[in-house]
Amino acid sequence: MQTIQAVSYPVHFQEESYKALSNLIEENNYSTIFILVDENTLEHCYPKFIPNLSTDKKIELIEIESGEINKNLETCIGVWNAITELGGDRKSLLITLGGGVITDLGGFVASCFKRGIDFVNIPTTLLSMVDASVGGKTGVDLGVLKNQIGLFANPEMVIVDNAYLETVAPREIKSGTAEIIKYGVTYDINLFNEIKDNKDLNISDLIFRSVEIKNEVVLQDPREKNLRKILNFGHTLGHAIESFYLESEDKENLTHGEAIAIGMVCECYMSAKLLGFPEEKVTDVKDVVVSIYDKTTLLKEDFSSILDLLKHDKKNVNGQVNFVLLNDFEDFKIDCKVPEALIIESMEFYNQ
Amino acid sequence: MQTIQAVSYPVHFQEESYKALSNLIEENNYSTIFILVDENTLEHCYPKFIPNLSTDKKIELIEIESGEINKNLETCIGVWNAITELGGDRKSLLITLGGGVITDLGGFVASCFKRGIDFVNIPTTLLSMVDASVGGKTGVDLGVLKNQIGLFANPEMVIVDNAYLETVAPREIKSGTAEIIKYGVTYDINLFNEIKDNKDLNISDLIFRSVEIKNEVVLQDPREKNLRKILNFGHTLGHAIESFYLESEDKENLTHGEAIAIGMVCECYMSAKLLGFPEEKVTDVKDVVVSIYDKTTLLKEDFSSILDLLKHDKKNVNGQVNFVLLNDFEDFKIDCKVPEALIIESMEFYNQ
After folding, report:
1. Which among A282, A314, B76, B278 has the fewest CB atoms less than 10 Å away?
2. SS3 B117
C-alpha cells in the first residue's frame, strides 16, 4: 500500500512500515527507544509489534493505565518521571502504541520532554488510525475538558497497520466509524455512501481514504483557520455530550464515536433549520447512525449540564459557541451561532 | 532606546514599549488579557505596569507563589484551571510580569493552553531581562531537574523596562550580572572588562548589549546545534550546583547567578587544563566572581551528589556530560568531555 506524505512526515501502511521505522532508528542513532503502552496494548499489540522492531538500541517499555480518564497531566508527570529515571535524553525516541489516549498524550509528553524529543505514532484503534494519525494535535484533558492542554507537534512517522484492529473490541471499531462518516458527509460523500450501502466493508480502503482526506484538509489549513474546521463537524456538541457522560458517575461512558455520531445527527438537524440543509439528508445520517450504534437517550434534565460544557469548547471565542454546519453534503459553513433553543431541539430530534 | 528584532518578535525598551503593547492588543482584538504575577511583582511591579496598559479589554490577574520551588507542573495546572475558570479562550493574551520563573512558566502555560495562546513577556529582574527575554525557551522543573519539561515558543513581544529593577533586591541584581559576565567571556570581552574595571556601571547599556548578543547568538543557531551552546557556559556544572542547593534542606539556596558564577570559575579551570585557556584569565574570572558574590564553600562530601545531578543535564547524550569550554575569551569549544577527577579538582580550585 502507498505511503501518504503528511506535512513533515510519512504515514506508512501495513507490514512495509516496519522497514521504514528501522531505517529511521538507524539514521537518527537514537540513544534509547521508549515504547508507551497501556495494559491492553501491552497484552495484545506489543507482541505483534516487537518482532517487527529490528534494532540493537536499548528499548524501555512504559505502561500507563488505559482510558480517557487517565489522559491527564498526572499521567504525563508519571511518564516524564519514568523517562527521566530510565535515562532518557534529547536523542531518545518515543514510540506510542495504542489508541487516541496513548498517541495524543504520548505526542505531548515527547514534545515537552527536554523541549522536545522525536516520536513515532502507531495507532492501534480504528479511531486513532483515521483521526489522530495526521494533523499534529497532541494533548491531554484538564478535568473534564477534553484536550484543553496540548500542542501542535508532528511525529517523525506514523504507522497504520490493520493487524492491530484484530485486537480491538467491536464497539471500538464502531467508534472509529463515526469519524469516517464525518469525512464522508463533509468532504467525500462516496465514503458515506459506502458505509450506508455496504454490509461488507473493505476496512483497509476506508482507512486509507480517510487518512488521505484528513491529510488533504490539514495540509491546506494546518492551523484551523477555515477548511480544517470541518473536522470539528459533530464534535462541538459531541464533545460536550462525551464530557457530560464522562463526568456523570451514574452513567456509563460513551465512546468518542458514539458521542460524535449523536453530535452529527444534531448538527445536521441544526444545519437544516439554519442553512437549509436538505431534511432527507438529515434522515439519511440519522438512519446510518442509529443502525450502527446502540441508541442513547439524552435526558431532558441533563440538557443544561451539556449546554454548560459547550461553553468551554476550545473553539469558542468571547464566550460564543461556534458550530461548523452544512449547507449540503461536502459544503460547509464555519462559525455558525446556534440559539440555545435550537440546540435543545436538535437533541430532542435525536431522541425521537 | 532602539528596538531589537528577535526571530519573530520585537524586544522593546523603556517607556516607549507600552505604546507598542497597546497597539498589539488593539490589532489582535484579544478577548481577555491575563496578567501572571507572583506576590512580589503584584506588590511592586504591577502598580508600575498597570497605568501603562491602556485598553478597554477585560483584564484578569493570576497570582502564583514566587520562587524556583514553585516552577513546576502543579503550578501550571493551577494557572490553567484559573484561566479556564476566568473564561480564557484561544483569543486570550497572557502577559507575564516577573522574573525567570514567571516568564518561563508563563510562556509554557500559554503555549500549551488550548494548543497555544499569545503571550508577552515583561521580565522584571536583571536575570530575566538579559537571559529569558530572547531565545524562546519556556518550561518548568520536574522535581529538582531544572527546565526538564518545556518547549521552544516565542512571545509576541518582550518589554524590557529598567524601572522594574528598582523593585529588585541587590542580591537579585547580582544574580543577573553573572549572565552578563557570561556574554562577556564567551562573546564580547568588552562587556566583561566593563564589569571588571568599572565601579559605576551603566546598567541600561549592559542590558541592551546583553540582549543584543543573546539575540545574535539565537538567530544564528535557534535550535542549539553549535554557537548557541555558548549560552550554557558555566551552566553545566552551575545547574547541578544550583539543583543541589535547592534540594538540600539544610542549606540556603543559591541564586541562579551565584551558582552559574561558580560554574564559570570551575569551567574556566577545566578549560585551562584541557584546552590551554590562559591561567591568568582563569584568575581574572575568579577575581571578578569573588568580588561580586559572597563566597560559597562547596563541601567535599557534597561533590558526589553534585556529580550525580550533572548526569541528568538536558544536554547530555548517551549518559555523557557535555561541557562548553573556552580555548580563549570569545573562542569556545562545544561537546567537551571532562574526566570526573577534573570536575572535582575544579570545585576544589573554586574553594581555594
Report:
1. B278
2. coil
Q: Are A210 and A188 in contact (CB under 8 A)?
A: no
Q: Is the pLDDT of residue B272 over 90?
A: yes
Write the pLDDT tens digit of every residue in A4-29.
998 889 999 998 899 999 999 999 99
Residue B269 has pLDDT above 90, yes or no: yes
Q: Which of A169, A226, A158 is nearest to A40 (CA)?
A: A169
Within 8 A of A73 by CB-CB distance, chain B residues are 73, 76-77
The nearest CA of chain B is from the CA of A163 a distance in Å of: 32
Do A167 and A134 meet the contact criterion of CB atoms below 8 Å apart?
no
- Residues A127-186: tens digit of each pLDDT: 999 988 888 999 999 987 889 999 999 999 999 999 999 988 899 999 999 999 999 999
Tens digit of each residue's pLDDT (9 = 90 or more) over A188-218: 999 999 999 977 788 999 999 999 999 999 9
Q: What are the contacts of A167-173 at 24+ separation with CB within 8 A?
A: A167/A40, A167/A41, A167/A44, A167/A45, A167/A48, A167/A124, A168/A124, A168/A125, A168/A126, A171/A255, A172/A99, A172/A125, A172/A126, A172/A127, A172/A255, A173/A126
Cβ–Cβ pairs < 8 A, chains A and B:
94
pLDDT in tens, B165-200: 998 889 999 999 999 999 999 999 999 999 999 777
Architecture of domain B4-167: 3-Layer(aba) Sandwich (3.40)
* Alpha-carbon gap: B278 to the closest alpha carbon of chain A (Å): 33
The pLDDT, as a whole number, for residue A54 is: 87
C-alpha cell at A171: 464497539
Structure confidence by residue, pLDDT tens digits, A50-89: 999 989 999 999 999 999 889 999 999 999 999 999 999 9
Read off the C-alpha cell for A25. Answer: 532508528
Task: Select the residue of B113, B115, B149 nearest A112 (Cβ to Cβ).
Answer: B149
Per-residue pLDDT tens digits for B73-94 = 999 999 999 999 999 999 999 9
DSSP state of A129: I
Q: Which residues of A touch B315 (CB under 8 A)?
A: 90
Q: Which residues of B touch A (CB under 8 A)?
A: 31, 73, 76-77, 80-81, 84, 87, 89-91, 111-116, 137, 139, 142-143, 145, 147-152, 312, 314-319
Q: Above pLDDT 70, what percent of chain A?
A: 100
Which one, of B233, B185, B241, lies nearest residue B334 by Cα? B233
Q: Where are the domains of chain B?
A: 4-167, 170-351
**Residue A184, all three cell numbers:** 464522508
Q: Are A310 and A343 in contact (CB under 8 A)?
A: yes
Interface test with A, best of B79, B114, B137, B154 (most A CBs within 10 A): B114
Strand B145-152, strand B331-336: pairing? unpaired
* Least Cα separation, residue B109 to chain A (angstroms): 9
Q: Sort out which chain B residues have CB atoms less than 8 A from A310's CB and list them.
A: none
Q: Are A286 and A265 in contact (CB under 8 A)?
A: yes
Q: Which CATH architecture describes the domain B170-351?
A: Up-down Bundle (1.20)
Among the listed residues A108, A128, A127, A122, the one whose alpha carbon sits nearest the alpha carbon of residue A157: A122
Report the C-alpha gap between A68 and A144 in whole angstroms.
Answer: 10
> Cα(A59)–Cα(A33) distance, rounded to whole angstroms?
5
pLDDT tens digits, one per residue of B118-164: 999 999 999 999 988 888 999 999 997 889 999 999 999 999 999 99
Same CATH topology for A4-167 and A170-351? no
